[in-house]
Amino acid sequence: MTDENLPSVTSIPTYKAPQIEAGRKLFSRPVTFLLGVAQLEQLPPEDKTEICFAGRSNVGKSSLINAITGRKDIARTSNTPGRTQQLNYFDLDGACHVVDLPGYGFAQAPKDIVDTWQNLIKQYLRGRVTLRRVFVLIDSRHGFMKADLDMMKVLDESAVTYQVVLTKADKLKKGQLEKRIKEVVNALVKHPAALPKIFATSSEKNTGLAELRAEIASLL
């Protein structure tokens, strides 16, 4: 890892300098908001690799997208859970599409609307041919919660490859973080579509972002 404050455990992937540089170059390119998708019919053509970020409401998806792209407000952040109410597509200079999924588990919206979001997410995950990787964001302070496990079950059943990204890693002491990482990795053994290598990140401290960029660059 490039951040000496992270625990040295084998479940966290390491990358060589050329891979880190490839990730840096990729995310130094222009990134723009493409469109918001509220219905499957609005999805763009399947002509580019897609990677997407999923997670419980307020887990820090928008903050992470802003951080890895080096932008302050490409993805709108809010303290109000459930603000992202559609699949938000971002175009990374024609190289790929980055998709921010609606938060799951809780939202300040009527149940029928929340159910519509969740149905849209499930249909997208099960039918998108160009979807290469899903990054499931988990708050490092809390670990897996029921809503996370429900989403991972959908991904397992859909055979969509995913990796766990721990957010807010700076909120834990090194020993606590290492324990959390081991808990997560042990739990992933039961999930056939999950990759065992996870990321521990902090959008505030820029921890783990170079490695995440390198992983995404390797998928293109």
TrEMBL record:
This entry's Gene Ontology molecular function terms read:
GTP binding; metal ion binding
GO CC entries: cytosol
Its needed co-factors are: Mg(2+)
Please give a single GO biological process term from the UniProt record.
division septum assembly
Which SUPFAM superfamilies does the UniProt entry name for this protein? P-loop containing nucleoside triphosphate hydrolases
Claim: Isomerase is one of the keywords in the record: no
Keywords assigned: Cell cycle, Cell division, GTP-binding, Magnesium, Metal-binding, Nucleotide-binding, Septation
Membrane-spanning parts: none
Q: Which residues form the EngB-type G domain?
A: 47-220
* UniProt xrefs under InterPro entries: G_ENGB_dom, GTP-bd, GTP-bd_ribosome_bio_YsxC, P-loop_NTPase
Query: In this record, what's one Pfam family?
Result: MMR_HSR1
Q: What Gene3D superfamilies does UniProt report for this protein, alphabetically? A: P-loop containing nucleotide triphosphate hydrolases (3.40.50.300)
List, alphabetically, the NCBIfam families matched. GTPase_YsxC
| The protein's role, per its UniProt record | Necessary for normal cell division and for the maintenance of normal septation.
- Protein's name in the database: Probable GTP-binding protein EngB
Q: What is the organism field in this record?
A: Thalassospira lohafexi
Per UniProt, what is the name of the gene that codes for the protein in this document? engB
